[in-house]
Amino acid sequence: MAMAYQSVSHRSSMGGYITQGGVGRLSRAPLQHRLVQCHSKKGSSNGGEGNFGDELLDFMYAGKKLRKWYGQEGQVLPKDGGVQDDGDMEDEMQGPRDKIMVLYPEESPMAEQVLLQLILMRAPVCVATKDIAQARAGYGTYVDVVQSTSIDGVLKACRVSQSVVLCGNVSARLVAVLEKAKVPHVVLLSGARSGSKPTGIASFFPGKEYRELTDVSRETVLSESSLTYTIVQVDAAALSNAPGGSVSVGISQDGQASGAIPREDAALCIAMVAMNRKPEGMIGLTSSSSSSSNSMEQSTVGGSLRGREEAMAQLLGIS
Question: Is this structure's pTM higher than 0.70?
Answer without folding.
Answer: no
